[in-house]
Amino acid sequence: MAKNHGPSIKDNEKYEALRDEGMSKQKAARIANTPDASEKGGRASNYEDRTKKELYDAAKRIGIAGRSKMSKAELIDALRNN
């Protein structure tokens, strides 16, 4: 049985599994709180195919600090590793 991580975590089992895989608390929480995170077949475009503004907006939604000074390559790296 999964430990209760409070009201901010919607799927405690998924959160714990992601943390066990080595993900950060922030990333595990973001994935565990996404209603369709377990569904396959996402249609998101590759980061390289997106504009810098699209990458910036995605980084803003996630809350990546320092995004305004990042290049496109740095934004891609931050999005992939956050």
UniProtKB/TrEMBL annotation:
Protein name according to UniProt: Rho termination factor
Pfam families referenced in this protein's UniProt entry, alphabetically: DUF7218
Q: Where is this region: Disordered?
A: 1-52
Species assigned in the record: Neolewinella aquimaris
Give me the stretches of Basic and acidic residues compositional bias.
8-24, 37-52
**InterPro entries, alphabetically?**
DUF7218 (IPR055642)
Q: What is the lineage of its organism?
A: Bacteria, Pseudomonadati, Bacteroidota, Saprospiria, Saprospirales
